[in-house]
Amino acid sequence: MEINDQQVMKKLICFLIFLFFVSCSEYVDKPKNLIDKTKMSEIIADMAINDQVINLYPGTNLESGTRFILKTHNVKTDDFVASYRYYIVKQKMEAILNDAQKIIIEKDPKSEKKIKGNTEIKTTELPKLERR
To answer: Domain DUF4296: where (predicted)?
Structure first.
């Protein structure tokens, strides 16, 4: 009986090791046409500016502006979506967004106050957590 128990234990350990290696694989594969971080920052900065134009002129079309931005950067929609998803999963989007903010500030220095004001959390405005 001892030999049989040892064989079962070996198989169980091998199976657990196999599960460990399988679970450590990538969650999202790197896209074939991955957009580099600097170009991604430029695209997101342009999209943010486009979004503000939409707020100023409510009758305009956001979708056509987005298509125009992607076309000027020579990027396909599917490539942008796949790259965006990849950077989100890899937790690299925060650095890209910070670079996009810098690009916006370079284009319009007056926007720095608005950008910095939106990113700072004001503790006086946070709601109090109470149990009832």
So the answer is: 31-105
Instruction: Name the token pair of 120.
Output: 């700072």
Query: Tokens 């594969």 appear where?
Result: 29
Q: Which residue range forms the structural domain that includes residue 48? A: 36-114
Q: 61 lies in a domain?
A: yes
Q: How far apart are CA 27 and CA 131, in angstroms?
A: 38
Structural element, H or E, at residue 18: helix 2-23
Q: What is the pLDDT of residue 118?
A: 61
Whether 41 maps to a domain, the answer reads yes
Q: What is the pLDDT of residues 81-127, one digit of tens each?
A: 999 988 888 888 899 999 999 998 888 877 777 777 765 545 455 55
Domain total for the chain?
A: 1
